[in-house]
Amino acid sequence: MFAIACTKNTTPPRIDTRQLPSKIIRYEYDTLIGAENPPCCEIKIDYNFELNRYDSIRIGDTRKFDFDYSKFANEGILLAAYSDIHGAYDRIHFNTQKNIIEKLVSNGQTDSTIMSFDSLGRILSLQYDDAFSPLNSTIDYLYKYDTIFRTKKYNSSACEQVDTLLTIYKKFNNQLPYLMLSDFYSPCNIRLRTSLLHALPTSSYNYAIPRTVLSGENMTSFTYKADAKGRLASLSISTINRLSLRIVEQRRYVLAY
Q1: What integer is the mean pLDDT of 42-46?
Q2: What pLDDT digit, counting tens, does each position of 142-182 carry?
């Protein structure tokens, strides 16, 4: 997503368009009837090939975000205007020297998502804060060889969960939305909440692909399929209770290029 340079980068984010998906469709499994539901959410990514930057991202049927780059060169800020609310927009704050997204502030500045990264561009923490919500939360990441320990906790309650992500040697392309593709059910039910982070990569780091996650009594498995060019074509995420063997949650993503 980002143009890496030794000096401050004041050009818009660049991507390798051959690897960026143009559409991501999410399917969810109905555990009561034992069948997959019709598509519940679709992300459409419109990329400008001539200018090497995003034009817009549509999430679902109601909202499209149109990008305004007028503040990017001087302030490192992208404005993402809402198609369904006149004058409303999100602000995406970039660190152009490190090629990372540091903060995303939603319309009206009532809530924000703040992220920190290590020197490699790996996310270390994600903090969601809403002035009108008691469910503000923090997700911390600790990297140990082929394992990622992810601690999720609400800021105002005792609920805290440690997820142990076991990865494989293969890596995601850094133009994929890693935060969304590694989001899954956990007992505290702390999920990725900011809509644009479901579509955008947050840094230029290539994350190792998760294969299994242990979260208390739950175990989550990841299954991947590639297209003829070796790109991620689909991802299935299944969470079961290890004691009862009950399916807790299943979802599937299908990517088009």
Answers
A1: 95
A2: 999 999 999 999 887 778 899 999 999 889 999 999 999 99
How high is the pLDDT of residue 14? 54
Residue 139 and residue 150 in contact, taking contact as beta carbons nearer than 8 Å: yes
Q: Would you call 213 exposed, middle or buried from its count of C-beta atoms within 10 A (0-12, 13-18, 19+)? A: buried
pLDDT band at 34 (very low <50, low <70, confident <90, very high): confident
Tell me the C-alpha distance between 140 and 12, whole Å: 29
Looking at residue 178, its amino acid is Y
Report d(CA 202, CA 214) in Å as an integer. 24
Domains defined for the chain, CATH in brackets: 23-250 (2.40.160.190)
The secondary structure of residue 179, as a DSSP letter, is: H
- On the 0-12 / 13-18 / 19+ scale of CB atoms within 10 A, 86 is exposed
Q: How many CB atoms lie within 10 A of CB 186?
A: 23
Contacts of 11 (CB under 8 A, 6+ apart): 3, 73
DSSP 36-62: EPSP-EEEEEEEETTTTEEEEEEETTT
Q: How far is Cα 186 from Cα 20, in angstroms, rounded to an integer?
A: 29
**Among 188, 182, 92, CA closest to 137:** 188
Among 58, 24, 18, residue whose Cα is nearest residue 235: 24
